[in-house]
Amino acid sequence: MRVMLNLTVIFAFAVFSQRWAAAVDFQTFVCPAKDEKTQCERKYLLHLPDSLKVNAPLLFVLHGYRGDARDYMGEMGMNSQAERHGFAVCYPQGSDDVEGVAHWNARLKISETDDVYFLSQLALTLQEKYGLNPKKTFVCGVSNGGFMSYTLVAEKPDVFKAAASVIGTMSGATWESRARCKAVPVLQMSGLHDEVVPHDGSMSTRGGWGGAPSQDEVIKFWAGLANATEEEVVELTPKTTVRYFRGGRNGIEVWFYQVKKMGHAIPNMNNSGVDVSKELWRFFRRF
User: Fold this and answer.
1) Domain-embedded: residue 86
2) Which letter, b or e, does each residue of 60-76 get, where b requires 16 or more Cβ atoms within 10 Å of its Cβ?
3) pTM for the whole thing?
4) Quick check: 12 pLDDT over 60?
5) Residue range 138-172, pLDDT digits in tens
6) What letter does residue 179 receive in the DSSP assignment?
7) pLDDT digits (tens, 9 = 90+) for 214-265
8) Could you tell me the residue range of the domain that residue 219 belongs to?
9) Which is it for the CA torsion 81, 83, 86, 92, positive or negative?
10) Which of 22, 79, 119, 184 is spaced 20 to 30 Å from 68 by Cα?
11) Is residue 77 part of a domain?
């Protein structure tokens, strides 16, 4: 199953990995030790617009399983949005799982890496170093990165204030521990023909991936937490429908994009009529 996970995304990015991977250098982050025996050294990329102001927002973009942060920086389009709207973008790199594959440990069973700790500590460090806004620090991710985005807002809503999952969902463990979740803004983008992360919740529990219900139920859970009961359904494009859940406490909203005939792929103008970077920032900028 893990070989299948993110297969479409791996294939899509293979054509430009050579173009971007060699062009950008990683920065190194040394995580503060949690005790005398633990310390981690991890890699990330950071884009800071020339016009960046003090107290600007910070957005984390998490790659998919087997992904390379440099490819996502090159092709996701978030740097252009950052230049236009004045926010910082961080692209962390996942570590290897038990099979040597870059991943995010969204409380999965394929590694012992504490990515909640790493990503939270990196966010706090960047906030302090560059004067970024702790109240406007957000996370989004593709596939496995979407799983991790849910886990971060479930466990660290004090650090990550909103999340967007693109063709991901909640991991089984994160769903099972949902009683501790607090209301936050959430966006989900799903392909209705996705056979890797099926929207009906039928994903295998092998490796800890599956276990959450349908994405309809996941979205209703987050909307319910915020008491966001004002639902509006909009046909954004002929291929993409958005369900907006608004009126939540403290202005919280939950958005659910459903793309007809799209599989496990990043939405784009061809397969959905949607510019994913524009839609993501259209969501985050509201909070």
Assistant:
1) yes
2) bbbbbbbbbbbbbbbbb
3) 0.92
4) no
5) 999 999 999 999 999 999 999 999 999 999 999 99
6) G
7) 999 999 999 999 999 999 999 999 999 999 999 999 999 999 999 999 999 9
8) 7-284
9) positive
10) 184
11) yes
Residue 95 covered by a domain: yes
Which pair of tokens denotes residue 74?
């090159």
Distance (Å, whole) CA 28 – CA 41: 7
Q: What are phi and psi of 91, to 5 degrees?
A: -120, 90
pLDDT at 9 over 70: no
Number of structural domains found in the chain: 1
CB neighbours of residue 157 within 10 Å: 16
Q: Which two tokens mark 272?
A: 């959905």
Rounded to whole angstroms, how far apart are CA atoms 80 and 174? 32
User: E strands within the chain?
Assistant: 27-35, 38-47, 58-62, 88-92, 95-96, 102-103, 137-142, 163-166, 186-191, 230-235, 240-246, 254-259
- Dump pLDDT digits (tens) for 116-139: 999 999 999 999 999 999 999 999
Side-chain-side CA neighbours of residue 211 (13 Å)? 19
Contacts of residue 35, Cβ cutoff 8 Å, sequence gap at least 6: none
The amino acid that residue 259 corresponds to is: V
Kindly report the CATH number assigned to the domain that includes residue 104. Answer: 3.40.50.1820
Residues 72, 10 contacting (CB under 8 angstroms): no
Are 178 and 246 in contact, with CB atoms under 8 Å apart? no
Residue 2 forms part of a structural domain: no
The three-state secondary structure class of 131 is: coil
Residue with tokens 């560059």: 130
